[in-house]
Amino acid sequence: MQETQPDGTPAGDAPARPNSLRSGPDARGRFGIFGGRFVAETLMPLVLELDQAYAEAKADPAFRRELDYYLKDYVGRPSPLWFAHRLTQELGGAKIYMKREELNHTGSHKLNNVMGQILLARRMGRTRIVAETGAGQHGVATATVCALFGMKCVIYMGATDVERQKPNVFRMRLLGAEVVPVTSGAGTLKDAMNEAMRDWVTNVRDTYFLVGTVAGPHPYPEMVRDFQSVIGEETRQQMHAAEGRLPDIIVAAIGGGSNAMGIFHPFLDDASVRLIGVEAAGRGLDSGETAASILRGRPGVLHGNRTYLLQDADGQIDEAHSISAGLDYPGIGPEHSWLHEIGRAEYVGATDDEALAAFQLCTRTEGIIPALECSHALAHVARIAPTLDPETLIVLNVSGRGDKDIFTVAAHLGVTL
Amino acid sequence: MSRPSSRIARRFAALKEQGRGALIPYLQACDPDYDTSLALLRAMPGAGADLIEIGVPFSDPSADGPIIQAAARRGLKGGSTVAKVLEMVGRFREGDSDTPIVLMGYLNPIGAYGPERFCADAARAGVDGLIIVDLPPEEADLLEGPAAAKGLDIVRLVAPTTTDARLPVVFDHASGFVYYVSITGVTGTRTASSDELAAALPRLRAATDLPVAIGFGIRTPDQAAAAVRVADAAVVASALLATLEDTLDEDGRATADTLPRVLAQLGDLSHAVRAARG
Ligand SMILES: Cc1ncc(COP(=O)(O)O)c(C=O)c1O
């Protein structure tokens, strides 16, 4: 997919310019002071092997061709960029486009990354896949490709999430995956991540750990970002085709940060494009019950990388809270921490209630039931769009569809299904 | 790189002269409360501990199995903080200036305390070495400077997955002793066979002159004895914590059985270690 920027220079796969914000991470896997490889020695040789295997795959045109084939014919890419007429009218301001990642096979952006990593795992000769999941979207995507390639699949999921994402649990089991409920901690994504790491350290010889977001030890943040960047690359082209120019504002929800990183990354060097990540503010940013790692956390080390974390004064990690299981994580990918510190991206919050309202707004005005995760991003769009003029182009990343959330939403609306 | 003056080096040198290996028991700070764990710590040398590892509780012990996870939860519930752990070591030192103390934990609580301040306060309290599970050599520059400046040993972990080519990277800047993680897995699960251990040790010996301790999966006196026949020390953690857990009452509080039973088990392990090479 070739493309030309307004000034005539090629974009997309073009090598990063000197001084580019897209050239990270460095050789140690760092984005500024963030990232790195903070893992036990047992895992370190594996992480180094993965780094090398990914570098080789990335440089191999055959790998790219294979991935493109599956992205097109199995995932269903490219996903459309939809001009949201009625939502734009309803909010009365900026022109709102939606990047329709919910139309991917399995219903979210997660499959972009999973497709890339499963092909890599096969290249590396691994036969058993483990993954962590929060909302279950990453687990479903992983179980799906394991079914596709006939690989053994074990999904770790917090017991609380197993409860609130029942449809996805059933889906994973139908796909042949073993779903292991994790009861340590609050039984959410952080605990599932710990347990997946424990499995990996125990089964190093045959197992590939398929991380679902732009976090974890290097090279995961880079690799997952690269696989998700297809979102931003398509957006760039599609916006150029629709409006003949770059968008002005891109808004995405942040759990670990993969859908946001995927749509942000191809625009990092375009200073005119405002990038806004929306964290889950839970019951309110100052309620003590949030998943807003950047807005309410400080830098620390967890799950293999240095990044912003919700933690207490003693460095114990706090439990996150969000109505959305996919955002319920006390950390964020290290590249976001860096983009925050250098001021290239902005991070804001949206509460549970704001997300619920946005969920309904989208459903009513566009006929699209969005996942609760990206409903947070829409809540922020609903806040700013009315204050902007109609020339302003906003892209909202609709990272997933909301069918999995209807039980949660019904419960909050007082409806028994 | 072992500093001859360090407590750890002196202890291993003395044991070498006696021709026996070391027993290194482990306890989790404040498990299940500060007073019990301080009392246990103080009684360990008398029951046969040659060095002692104190686990610094962390909310997310991703390299540990269920037994240490539970101990860490009890420790946090029992009021553990990094400052409390250091205070505990200081109190221990009032009555014991010889038994080396090694803190084992994860990086984030130390990062939150501040690496420089932590090393200064730890050395002052009487800590001798640090084992930071999630700090591989590639990231260790963070702590090496402050630790060396305060005379703290950084104990490096080696695993079955560590390749020969990687050993020099791991042992660069290592001091005190080397900790061989004898299985691929989390703590307190599988046990390495004597054959596996016998096969692993020569390659470590070829790459370092430091004493080698074996840990992860040593539960019984026989296993501890087997470990010190090929290595310089045996670390026992989960087996002691499981005993401790077993003595707690329904509300997770220590009982009159807690210390006696853990110390009796420690005594049995110690006898086996002392007799191993006899
Ligand atoms: C639909 C959807 N959006 C967003 C997320 C959050 O993850 P990330 O921030 O990595 O995109 C999830 C995670 O489960 C999800 O399912």
From TrEMBL, chain A:
Tell me the segments the record calls region Disordered. 1-25
Question: What Enzyme Commission number(s) appear in the record?
Answer: 4.2.1.20
Q: Which UniProt keywords apply?
A: Amino-acid biosynthesis, Aromatic amino acid biosynthesis, Lyase, Pyridoxal phosphate, Tryptophan biosynthesis
Entry cofactors: pyridoxal 5'-phosphate
Give, as in the UniProt entry, the pathway in which the protein acts.
Amino-acid biosynthesis; L-tryptophan biosynthesis; L-tryptophan from chorismate: step 5/5
Pfam families the record matches? PALP (PF00291)
Stored PROSITE patterns: TRP_SYNTHASE_BETA
The answer to keyword Cytoplasm applying to this record is no
Q: Which PANTHER family match?
A: TRYPTOPHAN SYNTHASE, TRYPTOPHAN SYNTHASE-RELATED
Instruction: Tell me the protein's name.
Output: Tryptophan synthase beta chain
Q: Which organism is it from?
A: Gluconacetobacter azotocaptans
Query: Gene encoding it?
Result: trpB
TrEMBL record, chain B:
- What is the enzyme's main class? lyase
| Catalysis performed (reactions) | (1S,2R)-1-C-(indol-3-yl)glycerol 3-phosphate + L-serine = D-glyceraldehyde 3-phosphate + L-tryptophan + H2O
Species, as recorded: Gluconacetobacter azotocaptans
- Supply the InterPro entries for this chain: Aldolase_TIM (IPR013785), RibuloseP-bd_barrel (IPR011060), Trp_synthase_suA (IPR002028)
Q: What does this protein do?
A: The alpha subunit is responsible for the aldol cleavage of indoleglycerol phosphate to indole and glyceraldehyde 3-phosphate.
Which pathway does the record list? Amino-acid biosynthesis; L-tryptophan biosynthesis; L-tryptophan from chorismate: step 5/5
Family the UniProt entry places it in: Belongs to the TrpA family.
Record-linked PANTHER family = TRYPTOPHAN SYNTHASE ALPHA CHAIN, CHLOROPLASTIC (PTHR43406:SF1), TRYPTOPHAN SYNTHASE, ALPHA CHAIN (PTHR43406)
Presence of keyword Metal-binding: no
Residues of the active site: E53 (proton acceptor), D64 (proton acceptor)
Quaternary organization: Tetramer of two alpha and two beta chains.
GO (cellular component) term, any one: cytosol
Q: What is this protein called?
A: Tryptophan synthase alpha chain
Give its E.C. classification number: 4.2.1.20
Gene Ontology molecular-function annotations: tryptophan synthase activity
Q: Which HAMAP family match?
A: Trp_synth_alpha
Q: Which gene encodes it?
A: trpA
A Pfam family it matches: Trp_syntA
Q: Which Gene3D superfamilies match?
A: Aldolase class I
Annotated keywords: Amino-acid biosynthesis, Aromatic amino acid biosynthesis, Lyase, Tryptophan biosynthesis
Q: Does the keyword Repressor apply?
A: no
